[in-house]
Design goal:
The protein is mainly beta. The protein is built from 3 helices and 22 strands. The structure holds beta-D-mannopyranose (BMA).
């Protein structure tokens, strides 16, 4: 038995694994949990992040509008499954007016550190980069400086300082639908100035793990366990019909997270159900958040489906570690 280092979450959304299911991750039977028209103006609601909040849950949701502009919206839930999403996008205070100017915002992550909820997202600033803001109550939101120069996507914070510094994994990219990309680790004394950049892991050439041959990117906030940081991430293969996005798992060293201790050659979840196969962008499963319960080792993963709706899936820390060890990637 491995242990999640973190808080108890007795109200984590949960369903037991269906009998006879051999996969390490299983879907919520009522998927998708959030439909594409969850708010009156939305074309799609996907790639979104949730955290425990008060006696329930709060989240930041990517809602693309019916003009297909990308923005992020706060939402609330009692059970983590049924969500009320605000009809107006998040308005940030603070920051330099230069940074507050909105170009586009998408793919939010939420990470509780010390006393507040930090939000990172892909922020348009002459190209995509990593926006950072925070809130205490999901009502008032403060924006800070962008973490990096363009171009970067998938900035995901660690839930505590490592070696005395705030820490983040991200995926340097380009202006468009980046046809490359590896995961890097960066640190900051103040969540404003970032440096000490380290390479974590990259795509896999050859057919040992072809689903992650084109690009990879951080997904959920890394989960601290007694064996290391469990990193749930996305991996992409290019096919004759476009990119396919699947979900993988790796284990990073607790003190030096750029050192990869384990990585699964097999994906843990990929497009299979109709709502993952069919949508604005077909064949996409894109994880952005995981709830965890330290008492039971349960993990609930929130993931975007076909760039259109939001799904929920379940696993445990033992399932993921056992699967990773049963199907290890040698070329990491
Ligand atoms: C990536 C991001 C994600 C999206 C994915 C599939 O580059 O833009 O938001 O889910 O492509 O379209």
């Amino acid at each position: 038995m491995s242990k999640i280092i973190g808080r108890s979450l007795p109200n984590i959304p949960w369903q037991e694994k269906p009998k006879g299911d051999n996969a390490p991750v299983w879907r919520y039977s009522g998927n998708p949990i959030i439909g594409q028209d969850a708010i009156p103006t939305s074309n799609s609601v996907f790639n979104s992040a949730v955290v425990p909040f008060e006696d329930g849950f709060a989240g930041v949701f990517r809602c693309d509008s019916q003009s297909v502009s990308m923005d992020i919206f706060a939402g609330f839930s009692k059970d983590g499954i049924h969500w009320q999403i605000n009809h107006e996008p998040i308005v940030f205070e603070g920051a330099d007016p230069e940074i507050l100017k909105r170009e586009y915002r998408y793919d939010p992550r939420v990470c509780f550190i010390e006393d507040r909820y930090y939000i990172t997202w892909c922020n348009g600033y002459h190209g995509p980069t990593i926006g950072i803001g925070y809130t205490f109550d999901f009502k008032t939101f403060y924006q800070q400086e962008n973490a990096f120069l363009p171009y970067n996507r998938n900035g995901v914070l660690f839930p505590r300082k490592i070696g005395g510094l705030y820490s983040m994994v991200s995926r340097p990219s380009d202006t468009g639908h980046t046809p490359f990309g590896d995961i890097f680790f960066s640190q900051s004394p103040d969540l404003v100035f970032w440096g000490k950049h380290r390479y974590v892991m990259g795509t896999v050439n050859g057919d040992e793990s072809a689903w992650q041959s084109k690009k990879i990117g951080p997904g959920c906030v890394p989960i601290e366990t007694d064996e290391g940081w469990l990193m749930i991430y996305h991996g992409v293969i290019n096919t004759c019909n476009g990119f396919v996005y699947r979900i993988g798992v790796a284990l990073l060293d607790l003190d030096q997270p750029w050192k990869v201790k384990g990585r699964s050659a097999y994906y843990i979840l990929g497009p299979k159900e109709i709502y993952e196969r069919v949508g604005d962008v077909p064949n996409v499963t894109f994880p952005c958040a995981a709830l965890t319960d330290a008492d039971t080792g349960r993990i609930a993963i929130y993931y975007g489906c076909a760039d259109t709706v939001t799904g929920l899936a379940f696993t445990t820390v033992d399932e993921l570690l056992a699967f990773m060890k049963a199907h290890p990637l040698d070329a990491r």
